[in-house]
Amino acid sequence: MNITTPPTRTLHRLVELACRAPSVHNSQPWRWRVEDDRITLLADRARQLMRIDPDGRDLLLSCGAALHHLRVAALAEGYRCRVRRDPYGSSDNVLAIVELVAADVPTEAVAAAALIDQRRTDRRRFSSWAVPEHRLDELADAAAGEGVRAVPVTGQGMRRRLVEILSRASREQQFDWSAVDETAAWTGPRTTDGVPPENVPRRVDAERHADPVGTRYPSGTLVDDSDDHADPGYDASRLLVLCTDGDETTERLRAGEALSAVLLAATGQGLATVPLSQATEVHATRELLKREILLGVAIPQVVVRVGWRPVSYEPVPATPRRPLVEVLEV
Ligand SMILES: Cc1cc2nc3c(=O)[nH]c(=O)nc-3n(C[C@H](O)[C@H](O)[C@H](O)COP(=O)(O)O)c2cc1C
Question: For ligand 1, is residue 306 a contact (CB within 6 Å)?
Answer without folding.
Answer: no
